[in-house]
Amino acid sequence: MPAFRRCLPALLLATLALHAGDAGAHLRAGENAEATLDVADASKTSDHPAFVATLARLAPSREQMSAAARMHLDYLQAWQLAYGGDHAQAIPLLERIADKSTDKVMRLRATATLVNILGAGRHYEDAFNRLNLMVADLPGVSDPHARYQALAEAAQMLTTAGQYDLAADYAARAVDIADTPSITCKSNVVALHALYRGGRVEGDDPRFVQWVAECQKAGEMLSANELRADVADSAIRHGRPNEAIAVLERYYGSVLRDEQPMQTSQFDALLARAQWQAGNVALADRFAAAAIRSSVPGEYSEPLVSATETAYFVARKRGDWRAATMWLARHAEADKGYVDDVGARALAYQIVKQQVVASRMETDALDRQNQILHLQRDADLHDAQTSRLYILLLLTFIGTIVLWLIRTRRSQQRFMRMARHDSLTGISNRQHFVDECTAALVEGSRAAEPIALVLFDLDHFKQVNDTYGHAEGDWVLLRVVAECRDHLTEADVFGRLGGEEFAVLLRAATQAQAIERAERMRVAIGTPSGEHQTIARATASFGIACTGAFGYDLDRLLMKADEAMYAAKAAGRDRVTVAT
User: Fold this and answer.
1) Which of 5, 273, 274, 515 makes an SS bond possible with 241, Cβ 3.0 to 4.6 Å?
2) Is 319 helix (H, G, I), strand (E, B) or coil?
3) Counting beta carbons within 10 angstroms of the beta carbon of residue 58, is it exposed (0 to 12), middle (13 to 18) or buried (19 or more)?
4) Pairing relationship of beta strands 452-458 and 540-546 according to DSSP bridges
5) Cα–Cα distance measured from residue 35 to residue 145, given in angstroms and rounded to the nearest whole number
6) d(CA 441, CA 450)
7) Which residue, 116, 122, 126, is CA-closest to 352?
């Protein structure tokens, strides 16, 4: 506790700075500090300014409070630091409560908040380790609010790791124990968000309307706006930007009032995408810049990726190629960082899962060793048959360990492949493609080898999904990859950059050879062979950039090939265009 008190002045200054006008206020005569803290705790997201003002008023009277009230105040101050994005100060304060407190409820709540901010700060293994400890502590805590918080944080953390079904299960458990309108709202928001991120529902699902209304009635605008962001994102993805703009602009003021950095950045990035899609270039530029400014420093978030892409489109539209090049580089960096983060979260989840399995197996192994020791002691008193039984058990134990080691190694190899390859088509994902191309271009530049970069995008692919469904769309993507592979060599690098956009790096290929091979792939996509038939038909627009014209810099080749591909689309689609 002394070390904790040394940190407290800095924490109080950070909190009091928000409401300097309350600095002279203290605990009122006869006021029950714990009851006041309970009221503030319940309103921390529904009436955040009042919550901060209460903390500022009570902080100077900390030493006059009971031990339970002091611990509650310490937790709420740490929560407020995390809410404002100051994770560096919040983490050690929460760790002290989670590791040292004798109050099971407060320990569970501190651990739940730690899971949230460790995940936000990209400390994924620590976050999942804390999550496992939190889940293990759940049976010993009966307080419904603490149990809700733990289940909700588990669901949100698992959503970020792509474990949508498991996240939805935890969220459903939180819904089952919800006993107030506020907690009911938040639980259903977490569940619905997990379903949306997992592709189980779309933004026009009636549950979005229902729970936006319920959350607004409960005063939980932060949660209501989280669902509105999903609704707007769905509208943008389905080509209805004006619907998204109407939702986002109406509640933009409430997002700014809540002062939650991630939600502010999310709304700005969505508005930028929607305004760009609606043709409002100046507004798209303004909101993209706002999203970039409001992004948490040092974090590669989805809003930052979206905003830098919009800024690139705006600069290119205006003919400002220097700015376009700069934003393309910023977008590539943000996209790489975000993709790395997504992969790191998934890998961290699997690593911690394997560690838990390994720990259980180690426990089982120790139990078996104890059994073996008992058998050894009994062997001195029994005949040779008992000895043979002991040897058989020992061999079984060794065989189990060897089998576990083999399976662990295979799991590691499978996770490495999953991190490098596109889950649907099996070809390189964006990051692995960039890494392979960078190495190939360095090698090619030394030998002055002609190399060509080919980008192609399926024409009107959204119509395929809308007409035949996403399952048929996936079959079309698989067919396109199969057709193209028939025209590639072992030395070529083939990757899916995202959605219906693909790229091929052709080794030892001149411009004429690149055109000829791109034409073969284009024709194969448009007229599939009997071996690769699908209901829907697809065509593709190709753009080519060669090292002979633009050198061996991958970013420059990508930008030029992208320009050529868009030129092919502008010229009528289903054709090959070379960057000049």
Assistant:
1) 274
2) coil
3) buried
4) antiparallel
5) 15
6) 10
7) 126
Burial 527-558 (b: 16+ CB within 10 A, else e): ebeeebebebebbbbbbbbbbeebebebebbb
The two tokens of residue 142 are 């009966």
User: What is the total residue count of the chain?
Assistant: 580
Q: Which of 396, 375, 291, 395 is nearest to 334 (CA)?
A: 291
Q: Is the pLDDT of residue 17 over 80?
A: no
pTM summary value: 0.48
Residue 460: other Cβ atoms inside 10 A:
12
Distance, in Å, from the CA atom of 20 to the CA atom of 11, rounded to the nearest integer, reads 14
Closest C-alpha among 271, 261, 342, 330 to residue 302: 342
Phi, psi of 11 (to 5 degrees): -65, -45
Q: Give the pLDDT confidence score for residue 234 in this predicted structure.
A: 94
Structure tokens at 22: 């309350």
Residue 229 reports pLDDT greater than 80: yes
Strands 576-578 and 540-546: parallel
The percent helix, strand, coil of the chain (3-state, each to 5) is 75, 5, 20
CB atoms within 10 A of CB 41: 16
Which of 428, 430, 528 lies closest to 479, judged by CA? 528
Kindly report the backbone phi and psi dihedral angles of residue 551, in degrees, each rounded to the nearest multiple of 5, phi listed first: 80, -170
Residue 259: which pLDDT band, with cuts at 50, 70 and 90?
confident
Which tokens belong to 57?
A: 């008023």
Higher pLDDT, 269 or 123: 269
Report the alpha-carbon distance of residue 356 to residue 132 in Å, rounded. 9
CA distances from 446 to 300, 368, 554 (A): 34, 59, 15
Q: Using CA atoms, how far apart are residues 79 and 98, in angstroms rounded to an integer?
A: 13
Q: Summarize the confidence of residues 15-32 as an average pLDDT.
A: 55
Coil, strand, or helix at residue 251? coil
- Nearest residue to 151 (alpha-carbon basis) of 167, 127, 128, 164: 167
Residue 285 has pLDDT above 50, yes or no: yes
Q: How far is CA 43 from the centre of its chain?
A: 28
Return the beta strands (E) in 364-500 as ranges: 452-458, 493-498
- The C-alpha atoms of residue 304 and residue 208 are separated, in whole angstroms, by 25
Distance CA 84, CA 260 (A): 7
Tokens found for residue 381? 């008193």
Q: Write out the two tokens for 549.
A: 């014209």
Listing DSSP states for 113-130 in one string gives: HHHHHHHHTT-HHHHHHH
Spatial strand order in the sheet of 501-506: 493-498, 501-506, 452-458, 540-546, 576-578
Question: If you average pLDDT over residues 215-237, what whole number do you get?
Answer: 91
Please list the residues that pair with 546 across neighbouring strands.
452
